[in-house]
Amino acid sequence: MPRGYGGVAILWKKNLDKLVTTLPIGNEIIQCIELSGNQKLLFISIYLPCKSSDNHLNELYECIDQLHEIMEVYKATHQIIIGGDFNENIFKENNSNRKNYILDFMSDHNLSTTEVGIAYTHTSGISSSAIDYILYQEKFKDYIINIEKPDIISNVSDHLPILLQLNYELPSSNSESQKQVTTNHKVKWNNIDRDKYKILVEEGIALLKVDPMNPNELDEAFQTLNHTITKATLAVAPKTKKRYGRRNYKS
């Protein structure tokens, strides 16, 4: 599809398969899943039309109107999270029709967000903006722990990821005898072998083609670079440790 008209997807861990239901609503740029916990949770991933089309305003209106319909159906029974590329800076001081239409939608459904700053840099490297957001219902704000831009050095996208930390209780599974807890360690760069990291990255960069001749070669170069950085990071970073909770024994 042309740039600005791509699709979206939602990924989840396989251990959540039994709790996740894909919903037959939305379209290529609005995808929804339902997570069945103690409070039903609706995730909506969106990619609002950019300004490259002469009809971009009407296209955005149609998408927001569809979100209105989804909200009306689910807001009384679900906690709703909307995240994605809005292709509009809603915090910028302007009076654009696009911005106002998005803000009106948020106001109509009591949706809030957190400003995390610049999260997008144009492929030219010349301009950057804040167009990616995660929206949540104001009535569930106490369940929002944090919204931030995580420090991921292996990211090669022109968009920075945005992380939502949510206080959400999943149903317990009686069939599990152990609860596995994974501790994610942040790389302590002051304590690692920087020379080794530099050597590993330089070795990977040496394998890249200097002048990619077509989109496939460019994509391959990005994948190689991403793999190189990830491999180098894993080689010098602390290994992830797994802890297991104690079993509950009946006396």
UniProtKB/TrEMBL annotation:
A GO MF label: catalytic activity
Pfam families per the UniProt record, alphabetical: Exo_endo_phos_2
Gene3D superfamilies membership: Endonuclease/exonuclease/phosphatase
InterPro entries: Endo/exonu/phosph_ase_sf, Endo/exonuclease/phosphatase
Parts of the chain that traverse the membrane: none
Top-level taxonomic group: Eukaryota
Domain Endonuclease/exonuclease/phosphatase, residue spans: 42-162
Protein name: Endonuclease/exonuclease/phosphatase domain-containing protein
Organism field: Mytilus edulis (Blue mussel)
